[in-house]
Amino acid sequence: MLYAVMISGIILPPAIVTLVLLLRQLGLAGTAVGMIATYSGMYLSLVIFFITGFVRTVPESLEEAARIDGAGPVGVFTRIILPLLRPVLATAAIQVSLYVWNDVFYALFIVGGRMDTLPLNLFMVASSGVQLNNWNLIFAYVLVMSAPLVALFAVFQRQIISGITSGAVK
């Protein structure tokens, strides 16, 4: 039942008006903590879906062998399950990072001009009439904005590919 509630976040859309009002009442509207809490709530169900899908494919014989060798529940998790989860966690982290990094909609409503994010700045520059003819500046901004994610992908490329293909071959 708890799993179904956690996964329902994938199919249920977040209510932006309610979210903004709740963040204002808590004093978190326009703050980095409010953005982190919003994104954590939105994408936690996706990460839980990835992790549970992978953990269900781990053979129980690995856990039983660790228990026979004297490992407790924490030892089984830290020595057996967690190293196997590394590709899945890398894949989930990259996917959530892409979603968060490229988000303009929630940043516009939740931050509300009190903080600047790179995609929000790009949206403001591209939608203003002053910079409309300066496509070279807009494309330069896009390149600068995408450089950290390209570097992150280059560093974690092996984990991402193994995380994507880990469930494909039995």
- Low-confidence stretches are none
How far the N terminus sits from the C terminus, by CA atoms, comes to 28 Å
Please report the number of helical segments.
Answer: 9
Query: What would you call the shape?
Result: globular
Q: In what range is the share of β-strand residues?
A: under 5%
β-strand number: 0
Order of helices and strands: HHHHHHHHH
The helix content is over 70%
The averaged pLDDT comes out at 80
Q: Main β-sheet, in a few words?
A: none
Secondary-structure class: mainly alpha
Computed CA radius of gyration, to the nearest angstrom: 20 Å
Explain the overall architecture.
This protein has 170 residues and is mainly alpha-helical. 76% of the residues lie in helices and 0% in strands. The chain has nine helices and no strands. It has helices spanning 2-11, 16-26, 32-55, 60-68, 73-101, 105-111, 118-127, 135-155, 157-165. Helix 1 packs across helix 3, helix 4 packs across helix 5 and helix 5 (73-101) packs across helix 9 (157-165). The longest helix has 29 residues, at 73-101. The chain starts with a helix and ends in a 5-residue tail after the last helix.
